[in-house]
Amino acid sequence: MSELKGWKELVPGGLIVEAGNAKEYKTGDWRTEKPELNPEKCIHCFFCWAYCPDNAVIVDAEAGKMLAFNYDYCKGCGICAAACPAKGAITMVPER
User: Fold this and answer.
1) Which site from 20, 29, 65, 73 is most exposed, i.e. has the minimal number of CB atoms within 10 Å?
2) pLDDT band for position 1 (50/70/90)?
3) Is 56 among the domain residues?
4) Phi, psi values for residue 90, rounded to 5°
5) SS3 74
6) Is 32 helix (H, G, I), strand (E, B) or coil?
7) 3-class SS at 2?
8) DSSP classification of residue 82
């Protein structure tokens, strides 16, 4: 049996080797829940867009409307649903 390495011997991971490369990595495929929009209840306040840590909320700023979620980058954290003042406009549903 081989000896396990300690943390000092491990190769560093999660390195960002160049700025602005986040779009190259679609990171939304490991979530267990996803936000779902109810357009009839949405008041288009953009709180979800402002609070989303992954820039996964798609808005049309000129029209003043929240459109959808970019599930390629959404990690299912639920911050958008928690920040939404229009109760029921964004609900977290299990990922299938």
Assistant:
1) 20
2) low
3) yes
4) -125, 120
5) coil
6) coil
7) coil
8) H
